[in-house]
Amino acid sequence: MVTPALAFVAVAVSSIACAKPAGYADTIQERDLLSGKEKIEPESGYVYIRSPIPQGGVLLLLPDEAAIARYEAEWAAALAVVQQKYPAKLEDWEFRTRLAHGKGQKLPEKPIEPTPENFSIGPIEERNPVFYGLHISASTESPQSYSYLLRVEPGRYAYYGPVSKGRDGLSGTCYCMGTVSFEVKAGRITDTGKFFPSGMLAFGLPVSLQSYPNEQADFRAHGKLDNFFGLAIGRMPRVAGILAYDRDRVIDLKAQAEAAAVATPDAGTAETAPVAAAGIEG
Question: What pTM was estimated for this model as a whole?
Answer without folding.
Answer: 0.79
